[in-house]
Write a structure and sequence with these properties.
Amidase signature (AS) enzymes, 40% helix, single chain, two-stranded antiparallel ribbon, 11-stranded mixed beta sheet, 15 strands, amidase activity, hydrolase, AS_sf, 19 helices, amidase, Amidase_CS, alpha/beta
């Protein structure tokens, strides 16, 4: 084996450069962003309102659909909205460490262009006219670094914008900031040696989720109202759930992915997707419909060429929702089960049929997807880490070096696991047919936002990546330590179940968002959003107010 080459620069020097650069993009703001207090409480959600001008707060507290209404009628200018979001994003960064870069110069120039267009034509340039959108760091911008969480990738600079950015810009979007990601992109946590750890705005001792954790934390603090995340095992839904916002993992090949940075060898064995995260459910639909209406398949041939479709609820029968209470491997923590039961009971009261949706070989599903995540045995990721001399983050070690399913596969072994994937997909389709449900309601994870470096159970989200089923995460309620208690002492289902039970901490988790996800079959993205819109209205979701 050849001796390991010495890195050209010490990794800490690169990390310092990254953070100095990030801070310099914030320091260009005029007026300057408010200074963050030295001493912060664990819950920082109320601090932006105390630091920012009331006008900034009033603008940034609006959901995207209301903002667009005001922008498209000239009641708000793109410049005012962009300036407000730049201020609030800068404050969010100081509170939870969620940004890699503030795009102040580009964003303000774009806003001025849009205002000039509106003044001349008296109409918006497109459906997203003037709307600030935040972007996960690994989505490539022309001329800006794209690290995908690695020190060794610090000098990677795309030569053109990712396709999704081109589509959204043409629709009138303003990109105002880029958000943090973890080393390897394969954590349900957001931490890297470049930028450190992104904290949960509800409790700094807990995870914002990953790998789109910068987006989740920023949205919770209203430093953005709509953002771009990505998902290969839960990376949109985990941070959405942890931070009490909305996020959808679309079916693959509907939303463009050309031009993102992604190291994972053999990634096509598990379809990775880009998708929206938002402070509102309407924001998800707005994003999806705008992108698909642009016919992106005309320039990205891998995408499937069918338009956004309206879904009409059945009129001749009740809506039928399956509830997956647990996967028979890990029981969810008490607040997750309470949320499931409350939603199911209230849906039944509204005449919606509730069916127990039994899990089908979910342990086998993890064996398949975990074998397909790193078909090179993790060599490419290991090289990306080791070549700079940066240390492995705990969850990088866990998913690659401590994962028994990660092995270097030859052609025959890859073929075997792909055949297993397709066989499992067929069996699950038959299982779904037998139960005859319109959608499935289930946990996003085995608990609420966990303590740092403990998110080691992906199966409630990765299950749907393996099947390529669309799934949307949404907030329901909050943890209440007075009522969320284990009932009885049931026998442990597995080692994973034992580990998860040990993570339960009612004092630390009190007040955290409790979220669920709604699942549809492949290409039923429109259907699950329509069903969630319907049940949101029927039972008045979420049950508590979220910032």
């Amino acid at each position: 084996m050849a001796p390991k080459a010495k890195p050209e620069r010490p990794w800490k020097e690169v990390a310092e450069e990254a953070q100095v650069y990030r801070d310099s993009t914030i320091s260009t703001l005029h007026p300057p962003a408010p200074k963050i207090p030295t001493e912060l409480p664990k819950n920082v959600l109320s601090i932006p309102q105390k630091l920012l001008h009331p006008q900034v707060v009033s603008i940034t507290d609006l959901p995207p659909e209301q903002l667009l209404s005001l922008l498209s009628t000239g009641q708000l200018s793109a410049l005012h909205v962009t300036t407000a979001y730049l201020q609030r994003a800068a404050v969010a960064q100081g509170l939870v460490n969620c940004l890699t870069e503030l795009l102040a110069t580009q964003a303000l120039e774009r806003a001025k262009e849009l205002d000039a267009y509106f003044q001349e034509h008296q109409e918006p340039i497109g459906p997203l006219h003037g709307l600030p959108i935040s972007v996960k760091e690994h989505v490539g911008f022309e001329g800006l670094r794209c690290t995908t969480g690695y020190i060794s990738h610090w000098d990677n600079v795309p030569k053109e914008d990712a396709h999704i950015l081109q589509v959204l810009r043409k629709a009138g979007a303003v990109f105002h900031c880029r958000t943090t990601i973890p080393q390897t992109m394969m954590h349900l946590e957001t931490d890297s040696n470049l930028y450190g750890v992104t904290n949960n705005p509800y409790n700094s001792n807990l995870s914002a989720g990953g790998s789109s954790g910068g987006e989740g934390a920023l949205l919770a603090l209203h430093g953005s109202c709509l953002g771009i995340g990505s998902d290969v095992g839960g990376s949109i839904r985990s941070p959405a759930a942890n931070c009490g916002v909305y996020g959808i993992k679309p079916t693959a090949f509907r939303i463009p992915t050309d031009g993102w940075g992604y190291i994972m060898a053999g990634a096509d064995t598990v379809e990775s997707v880009l998708g929206p995260m938002s402070v509102s459910l309407s924001g998800l639909k707005l994003f999806m419909k705008t992108v698909i209406d642009s016919q992106p398949w005309l320039t990205e041939p891998a995408l499937l060429p069918f338009p956004w479709r309206s879904f009409v609820l059945p009129k001749d029968r009740p809506l039928r929702i399956g509830v997956l209470w647990d996967d028979r491997i890990v029981r969810p923590h008490p607040p997750i089960t309470r949320a499931l039961k409350t939603v199911a009971d209230r849906l039944q009261e509204q005449g919606i049929e509730i069916v127990d949706f039994k899990p089908y070989l979910h342990e086998e599903a993890w064996a398949i997807i975990a074998s397909l995540y790193f078909t090179d045995g993790g060599e490419a990721d290991g090289e990306a880490i080791n070549s700079s001399g940066e240390p492995w983050r705990p969850l990088s070690e866990w998913i690659i070096t401590q994962n028994a399913c990660v092995k270097k596969l030859d052609v025959g072994e890859v073929t075997y696991w792909l055949e297993e994937r397709e066989a499992y997909r067929k069996e699950y389709a038959l299982h779904w047919n037998e139960l005859g449900v319109d959608a499935v309601l289930c946990p996003v994870g085995p608990g609420v936002a966990p303590k740092h470096n403990t998110a080691k159970y992906w199966w409630y989200t990765s299950q749907w990546n393996l099947l390529d089923y669309p799934s949307v995460a949404f907030p329901v309620t909050k943890v209440d330590k007075q009522i969320d208690k284990w009932v009885g002492d049931p026998k442990s289902l597995s080692e994973h179940d034992t580990y998860n039970r040990e993570l339960w901490d009612p004092e630390e988790f009190d007040g955290l968002p409790v979220s669920l996800q709604l699942i549809g079959r492949r290409f039923e993205d429109e259907k699950i959003l329509a069903i969630l819109e319907h049940i949101t209205e029927q039972i008045n979701l979420p049950f508590e107010q979220f910032p």
